[in-house]
Amino acid sequence: MPGIWIYSEDSAVARQLLTAGLELKNAMKQPVAVLTLSGEEAQTFIDAGADKVYVVKGSNPWPESYANAVADLLTKEQAGVLLVGGTMRGKDLAAKVAASLKAGLVTDALRVACAGDGIETTRLVYGGLAVRTETVTLPALVTIPPRTFAEAAVQGTGQGEVVIVEVANDDNRVSVTNVCPIVRQGADIAAADRIVCVGRGLSKKEDLTMVEALAAAVGAEIGCTRGISEDYRWLPNDRYIGISGQKVKPELYIGLGISGQVQHVAGIRDAKVIVAVDSNEKAPIFEAADYGIVGDLYEVVPLLTKAMQK
Ligand SMILES: Cc1cc2nc3c(=O)[nH]c(=O)nc-3n(C[C@H](O)[C@H](O)[C@H](O)COP(=O)(O)OP(=O)(O)OC[C@H]3O[C@@H](n4cnc5c(N)ncnc54)[C@H](O)[C@@H]3O)c2cc1C
Q: Which of 9, 130, 176, 232 is most buried, judged by most C-beta within 10 A?
């Protein structure tokens, strides 16, 4: 099926991409197909507007091992563009499929639009200091970060078609010998509504209890800057926010003792309300903040916690 194709191993992200896909469908006057490895949610994609759902069935559960099969399917069906959820696995698969198809790949696009015979995308570059607009010719692949678009709404009982495709995985060169899931402490901060984020303004690990008290009062998850997790090892790596860490989109972000370097701010720019506490009134975090408190966090945090508890 020519047209717009969508893939994410995360079905919520696939429904978000469907929103972008349906906008392209209107502009390109071409159908939208969802590619999935699990048939369970096929009908929900159709109910949300997909014209076709391809359920790809192979012999192992690792999405990245389906790259050749996906590339073959896209070639056979003459797909125009594949929108891929920008998760770690999604990006891995997108790179392999693009290489196999010798197609253009744009990563981390925040907007996709039809542009003549191609696709126009915009994305942030230089750690969020600039926005770049690019045009990629078809066939093309575009990865889109999770939560860039709202999930496509169910439009009633859809009339699309579900196609089962049996494929062979690319497991002839790499075989998985062991899998150890990473145990997360607390919730996924990338999905948190409220975040209290701590930086190197904190003097010692024990003082995290003060930060935890504020987070409990606000109902927030705790995040940090890279130094706190990678250098000091006070918090796990999946807690650090920024260009090389987690990108977050909370309703409320409270930064404590964080200077606001561009690599950190790139990860919080989609927060709705940013509150910053820092003793240096010239700290760049105040340029990104909606509310700034210039002061010693050791004085401000207990006061904030008390106020929030009320
Ligand atoms: C390629 C690359 C990628 C990177 N990716 C990331 C990333 O993804 N995420 C990330 O966070 N960083 C990243 N960094 C690191 C980044 O450049 C900064 O070094 C880092 O964000 C700074 O962390 P910080 O604000 O905690 O520390 P600092 O910059 O040291 O700031 C500490 C702040 O605390 C304030 N302070 C000190 N004492 C107090 C007090 N008692 N009360 C209140 N305020 C106080 C100071 O005024 C200062 O503003 C990256 C760097 C590179 C080169």
A: 9
